[in-house]
Amino acid sequence: MQWSNYSNALAGGRYWHYLLNSVIVTSVTMVCVILLASLAAFAITRFRWKYGHIVMLIFLMGLMIPLQSTLLPLMLIFKNIHVLNTRWAMILPYIAFQIPIAVFIMSGFLRTIPHEIEESAIMDGANVFRIFRSIILPVSVPPIMTVCILTFINVWNEYILAATFISKEALKTLPFGVYSFVSQYSVNYGAIGAFLVLGALPVILVYFLLAEKITKGMVAGAVKG
């Protein structure tokens, strides 16, 4: 191991610049996915309406859509609405592709919460948003943590969408740093390896620190007592 490779990765690969962009994009995506998925799962599972199963099926169909098949339509849409080469060109597709699995996880847990809790809150004068904020969200911490971690892992290392919609150097995320060490006539494999280790380090740390919460969130709601 040559520690000079890590210093080259930090300096020559613009690691801190790409890291900041990745943190911004990933954080905004996580917040939006948690908020939208929890609201959708709340409406699907807690409201008594006949179209709940249809809406859930629509979300599940999103799991079957290949990411590559959306590149051209998204390129045309983003060009027309003038969001190409902005962070929103990455954030919006990331949110769309992460919401289906998030809704699936959240709805599985919310079905296990007794309706009597909400009925008691309504009798005390609480409205729908108060019930969601004060009752549903606090007890939904395990699936929310699972959604956070899965979204973080999926978005942090994503390359295809970012490479398609972003060409400005100032907006590129961490996976692009590898190309800083590739030139026309040479490749610095040592620095590339060091940069890949540094790029994967946040994901590894998050996973090992919160691995137990991932398991708890995935099995929450699997067995209804």
Low-pLDDT segments, ≥5 res: 221-225
Count of folded domains: 1
Helix tally? Answer: 10
Percent range of helical residues: over 70%
Mean pLDDT: 82
* Beta strand count: 0
Major β-sheet profile = none
Task: List SSEs in N-to-C order.
Answer: HHHHHHHHHH
| Proportion of strand residues | under 5%
Q: What structural category arises from helix and sheet content? A: mainly alpha
- The CATH architecture designation is Orthogonal Bundle
Radius of gyration using CA atoms only: 21 Å
First-to-last CA distance? 53 Å
> What overall form do the CA principal axes indicate?
elongated
Describe the structure concisely for a colleague.
By secondary structure, the protein is mostly helical. It has a single domain (3-219), classed as Orthogonal Bundle (MetI-like fold), CATH 1.10.3720. Helices cover 71% and strands 0% of the residues.
Explain this structure.
The chain has 225 residues and is an all-alpha fold. The protein has one domain: Orthogonal Bundle (MetI-like fold). It is built from 10 helices and no strands. The protein has helices at 3-12, 15-46, 52-61, 71-81, 88-110, 115-123, 128-139, 141-156, 160-165, 189-219. The radius of gyration is 21 Å and the shape is elongated. The N and C termini lie far apart (53 Å).
